[in-house]
Amino acid sequence: MKFFKKSKDEEPTAPGQVAIKKRSRVPGVMITQFVEELPEGMTTPDFTRKPIALTIQEGKCAVFKAIVSGNPTPSVHWTRSNGEVTEPERYKMVSDPATPNEHYIEMPEVSPEQADTYKCFATNEYGKAVVTANLNVIEMGYKKSKAMKDIQLYSSCLRFVDPDKDDKKDGEIDPRFWDVLMSADKKDYEKICAEFGVTNFRWMLKTLNAKKVEREEEQAKYVENLSNLKHIEVKPGGGAEFEFDMSLKDPNVKIFLFKDGVMVPFSVETEEKHFLKKTGRKFTFGIKDLAGDDEGLYQVMVEGVLIFSTDLKVPMVDFLVKIQEVKATEREDAMFECVLSSPMSKIQWTGRNQPCEQGEKFDIEVSEDMLIHRLVVKDCAKLDGGIYSVCAGIKSCNAFLVVEADNDPATKGKKKVHKFSMAFSSFKSLNFESAPSFLVPLKTHSTPESYECYMSCAVRGDPTPHVTWYRNNISLNTNTNYLITNTCGVCSMLILRVGPKDTGEYKVIADNALGRAECSTKLTVNGIKNKIKVLLYCIEI
C-alpha cells in the first residue's frame, strides 16, 4: 500500500481512516480509498467517463459531462482552481434522476474569465475520485469601449479611413467573393471577408444588398421559388453533395453546372462522376470519388441566370494511425481510435453501413487538439459486430468489430467492466531507428489582427524526436501565450489572438540521438489600417 500526503483540495479523513492511493482504469483519474479493506460488494468511487477538455468561443454554452460509478452511489461536486462555481446564473449543476450516474456542469454564455481548470469530485464513505478538465475560451469581436480606446490609440498615426470605401475596388476583388457571399449564411460573412481580404463590412453589406436585388430580378424570369439552400458537404464514402428546393416556371428549361467557371457535364438519376437527383422540388447535385482537383467553386445556372454557388474545400488530412480490429465479449464496451495529421472538430463514423451518432449506443470523443478521435460502442451485442469505418475529408479507413459470446455462467447477461482489446498483425524483429524528418512541413500564414492562427507540421523519427518551437530564434516552448501540443508526431501551435508582435519567422526543430531536422515559415499579420476599418464597423453597428 502506498500512502501519500493529501492536497488542499481533498477532504480530511475521519479519525481511524486511511488515505490509500489507487489506480483507475481511466487515465487521469485519482482515487483515494478511506479504508484498508473494502466490505464485500462495496467499491470506491471511479469515473467511467471523465470530462473532456474544451476550447470554445465566448458566448457559447460550455458543458462538462462526467459518468461515475461506485457502491454506494457517490455524491458529486465541482470546483475550479481560480474562483467559485456558486453563481447559479453562470454555473448550473445538472443530474437526471433517471440516470443518476451522469453529472453535468453547464456554463451558459461562457465568458473569458471562466477559463480555468475545473475539477470533479465523486465521494462515498469508502473513498473519493477526482478528475480535472481545462476550459479555454476564445474571445470574439470587440467591446465598444475597447474599440474606442484602440481608435484613439492609433488615430495619431493613421489617415482617416472613409467607411463607405474599401481599398480594393469592386473590380479588384475576386469575382468568386460575391458569388459565395450571396449564397452564404450571415454568420459566415466575417469568415468569407477575411478569406478574400475584404475588411470594410459596411461597404460590403451595402454592395451585397444591391447585388442581391439585381440577382433576384434575373432569377424571377425562370424561378418561382428558391429555398432551403444547403452548401456542399463531404459525405461518407468519399463523395460530396449540395441541394436546394426550386420551383421552375417552365420545367423544360436547361440547367447547367459549372466548376470554377467551366461547364461540367452531369448525369440525371444515374450516379456518374457528377450527377443530379431530383425529387419533387428538391435538386441534389453530387460528386463521386472526391480527389484534390475536385476542390473549387460550383455554380448552378438556369438558362443564363446564376441560381446557387457553393465552395468545396477538400480537407488536406490523412490518418497517421488508422482504426484497428477490435474484439469484445458480449456486454463489454469496444473502442476504435484513430489519429489525424491535421485537426478536425468532427469526422464521420459509420457502423454496418449506418451513421454512428452520440447517444445510448455510441460515445464519440475528440481530444483537445482535435487530432485523436474515438468511437466507443457501448454494451456490445452480437448484432453490433461487423465493419466500422471512419471518414476524414476524402480519406477513410475501416476495421472489424468482433463480438464473442460470453460463455462464463457467472457473468453471462451482466454488464462487464470497460475492457478493450485490439488485434494487430504480427511484426518481424526489425530496426526502425531513424533520424527526424518532416512528413508535412509548416505552411506560410497571413492572418488578420485579433484572429486566431493555427500552425502544424508532422514529424517522424525513432527514438521519438524532441520538438522545439522558435519565433525569430527565441524558444516558445515555455511561453504561455502559445498553446503548443505534440500528439503522435503532429506538432501544432495555436495563437488565440494574433497581434503585431506575433509577426516573424517561426521554426520547428526536431532532434534525437540520430540527427536533427528543421522547417520554418513566416507569419504576416495584416496591418493596423485594416483593424481600424473593422473597429469603425463595430462602433457603427
From TrEMBL:
Family matches, as SUPFAM superfamilies: Immunoglobulin
Molecular-function GO term, any one: protein serine/threonine kinase activity
Domain Ig-like: start-end pairs: 45-136, 436-524
Record SMART domains: IG (SM00409), IGc2 (SM00408)
A Pfam family it matches: THB
InterPro entries: Ig-like_dom, Ig-like_dom_sf, Ig-like_fold, Ig_I-set, Ig_sub, Ig_sub2, MyBP-C_THB
Keyword field: Disulfide bond, Immunoglobulin domain, Repeat
Name of the featured protein: Immunoglobulin like and fibronectin type III domain containing 1, tandem duplicate 3
Organism: Hucho hucho
